[in-house]
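Lab notebook, bench 4. The sequencing result for the construct came back, and we need a structural model before the next group meeting so we can plan mutations. Quick request posted to the team channel:

Model the 3D structure of this chain.
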Amino acid sequence: MTQTRWTYRKAGVDIAAGDEAVRLLAPLAAATRRPGVLGGIGGFGGLFALPPRLKRPVLVASTDGVGTKLKIAFALDRHDSVGIDLVAMSVNDVLVQGAEPLFFLDYVACGRLRPGLIADIVKGVAEGCRQAGCALLGGETAEMPGFYRPGEYDLAGFAVGAAERGRLIDGSAIRPGDVMIGLPSSGLHSNGYSLARAVVEERFGARWWRRALPGGGRTLGEALLEPTRIYVRPVLGLLRRFAIGGMVHLTGGGWTGNIPRVLPRGCAAAVDIGSWPVPPLFSLLEREGRIGRDEMLRTFNLGIGLILVVRPRDAEGVERALRRRGEPCHRVGEIVRGGRRVLYRSTRSAPPRPGRTA
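Done. Here's the predicted structure in C-alpha cell form:
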C-alpha cells in the first residue's frame, strides 16, 4: 500500500493563494487609513493610538456578522457589497452609544481560498469603513477545506470606537415628551433574512431572486442584497450640536425588541404607524407570507434604520440639520409615561392595524 506524501496544499489549504489575497487586500486597507493608525497590515496585531483630544476616553466595541443575507450574495454571485453590511452592523451599534468608530477588523472563512473573491468581499469592507470614517486595521482569512460548501463563506467583524466618558449616550436622559425621529433604512439591512427567504422561496420558486420587484427597476434578489446604511457621518455632526437623549439601531428584534433597550424606568415609546413610508419590499413580504403585523414589527425595520430621541425644543433643529445634508427623516413617535415597552398607534395616513404592546 502506497502512503500519500502529504502537503498542506494537498490537504486543501493553499498558502500561496493566501499570500496573493493579502497582496490584493493591502491597498484596500491602506485607502481607509486615518489619524491614529500606526503601521500597516501584516503584523500580528493592528496598532491604533487614541485621539489626544479625548480627555477621559471610553472605548466602545461591537461585533456582528452578515447572517443568511450571504445566501442572497451566493445566489446572485455578487460579493462586493456584503462587506458594507458587515461594517454597518457594528459601526452603527458603536454610534448609538455616542462614540466615533475608529477602526474595524474582519474575519473571512471559506472552504477554498480564491484571492479574487476575497478581494471583492474586502473591497466592500473597505467601502464600509470609508463611509464610516474608520480604518480597516487588519483581519483574518481562514481557509477550511470541507467545512463550507463550494462557493460559500462566512463573515464576521468588529468595530472599536471612542467617546468622552461624559458624552456617552445610554438612554438615561430620555424623558416623557421627547420626540422620536427616524432615519430611513435602505431595505432589510442585515436582519430577518431567514424569514424573508422562507417566504420568497415558497411563493416564487427555486429562482425567486430573478423575479421583478413590483414597481420595476430591480429584481427581488437585488432589492434583498441592497447594503445596510451607515449613519455615522450625519449623526456625528448632530452630536456636536444637539443633546441626543438616546438612539436606537433597528436590527434583529425590529421595533418591538430594540426600542426598550434604551428606555429608562417610567418611559414607554409610542410609535405612530403610518408616519413614515414603508418600502414595497416589506409590504410584499407581509402579503405573500401572510405575516402578522406583530411579527413584522418584531422582525423587520420596516423602512427605518435608526431612531434619534431628542427634546421637543430640539426636534425641528435636528430635522433641519439632517435635511441640509440630504438626509430625509420622519417623526415616528414620542416618549410617554409607562413601562419599558412599545405602544403602537395608527395615524390618519394609514388604516388601523391590530397590534399588541410589546
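The domain at 15-167 is CATH 3.30.1330.10 (60s Ribosomal Protein L30; Chain: A;).
Will bring this to the meeting.
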